Amino acid sequence: MLARLAAARLAGLLVIAIVASTVIAGLIVGAQRDDNAGPVDLIVHNAKVYVADDLGTMAEAVAIRGNKILKVGSEREIMRYRRPQTTVIDAKGAAVLPGFDDAHASLVAGGLARDAVQLFGASTLDEIRTRIENWIAARPDAQWITGVGWSIDAVDEPTRAQLDAIVSDRPVRLLSQDGQRLWVNSQALTLAAITRRTASPPHGTIVRDRRGDATGVLTGSAVSLIDRVVPKPTREERAKALQLAIRDAQRQGITSAQDLGAAPGDMDLYDAARDAGLLGLRVYAAVHGDKTPASDLDAIARRYPDDPLLKTGVATVAFDGSVESQTAAMLSPYSPRGSGDGDAHLTAEQLAALVATLDGRGWQVAIDAAGDRAVRTALDAIGAAVKTVPGGKTPRHRIEGIATVAAEDILRFGALGVIASMQPLHATGDELLTWTQNLGPERSLIGWPARSLSAAGAHLAFGTDWPRLPLAPLDGLRAAVQRPDLHAPEQLTLKSAINGWTSGAAWASFDEHRKGRVKAEMLADLVILSHDIFAGPAKLAAADVAMTIFDGKIVYRKTS
């Protein structure tokens, strides 16, 4: 009897031991499966991978499973995940970065502008003439001749007569690089019914000659006098423009875009594209905080909550203009002596009230402020709103299009948690001469102070400002690290500049937990360049986009 009991007890202990060992083995296998189970869909190796973190971390390869990064590490670590079904991409020693996040663009407007006369880089009136004539030759039936990107530096005093000499039988509408000046011919003025008696609107100017006739240049809000008579694109044309914009963005290595110029109806286009599986980049779209009723803001926020592909949450406020057009609000008058000090669209009290309202409703506020007076007033408004936030939490409000900042205001960005959203191509653009002349030699030295802002603790977010400037983040990256001699003290290190186009931009849209860095569990959005840009300025200058990976899939591959 005792022997049978002992045997039974021994058998029970053996069963327990077997079960325990099975459980332990299962846990071990389960832990191993975290990395090894299931297919590894894509590997990028033989690369100079920049993680885009604060430490400047580099790696050699990336493994992707589904739409997320599985692991980042050495060549040996990553290649062990290779399976027969794995797509393996040899970067050939080139740089691999997080996909570019364009923190300031207008996608639908940019897609529509693709069909306009491209005047970027045209440095003389003759070159502008040639580009217009070539455009007309390709589109002889166009009702309007529209163009983008002309430089104030290219033509000393643009007039309607100059455009009439090129085109006299149909209207011409050319928008400057800074987006603040419209140059038109006589046909356009006639269609808009602009005469000697037409008053300039608030915050806008119809430039006139000594006789009181319109010269053909309109600035600020006066641009709308022409735009109201320009034929509006249909919904189908806008939807097509969005797809063209997405394709262009993918070619440039852009996997996310923050549409700070979204027009009414653009959110519906994005939503329809998402539903159709055609939204090939991540979009953070803005609403016009200074034009949208509060009740509508609440409804929009509920309809487009936080989502990895499409969301809103940022409200824009147009506060001033540009230095080039002398419409940016400055603390001191422009040069030469006798010039004004720019134009703020709201009083300080109006801006503070608007920011407080938007902040109170949970919106991130993005204030367009180029001049140092506009920047200071924007910081004051944000500072007043931040004081009312329970628990002292600082929201990530933004100042867009920063061109000049008073030295005493630099530190306030970091203290208030304000994001400095800048467009580096403006610092090397075609209008730099006019910009410098308008500010004078002393103030010109403090233009686009990216390095100073970063050193003061500000988060930098970089954008292209498309379609005012080209959709070219790589050119913007080069502009941030290779500033003209006058502004060389404000140029950034390469890694800091990359952060502005990636992790910094992700921070600006509250997405740092899922994108903007090359690390495990992040969304698999990458750009593979043609060269190792960390190997020196020559490699950076020669680099272009070789491949774009979005959501774990190759969406663009450069063909030789």
Q: What structural keywords apply?
A:
35% helix, six-stranded mixed sheet, eight-stranded parallel sheet, 21% strand, 560 residues, disordered N terminus
Describe this structure in words.
With 560 residues, the chain is α/β, with parallel strands linked by helices. The protein is built from 19 helices and 24 strands. Strands 8-15-16-17-18-19-20-21 form an 8-stranded parallel sheet. Strands 3-2-7-22-23-24 form a 6-stranded mixed sheet, with helices on one face. The chain has a 6-stranded mixed sheet with strand order 9-10-11-12-14-13. Helix 16 (473-481) runs antiparallel to helix 17. The chain is globular and about 80 Å long. The termini are far apart.
Tell me briefly what this model is.
The protein has 560 residues and is α/β, with parallel strands linked by helices.
The percent range for helix content is 25-40%
Class inferred from helices and paired strands = alpha/beta
Roughly what fraction of the amino acids lie in strands?
15-25%
Poorly predicted runs: 1-8, 13-33
Radius of gyration: 27 Å
Distance between the termini: 86 Å
In what order do the strands lie side by side in the largest sheet? 8-15-16-17-18-19-20-21
Shape: globular
Summed over residues and divided by their number, the pLDDT gives a mean of: 90
Seen as an oligomer or otherwise, the chain set is: single chain
Number of strands: 24
Largest sheet: 8 strands, parallel
DSSP helix count? 19
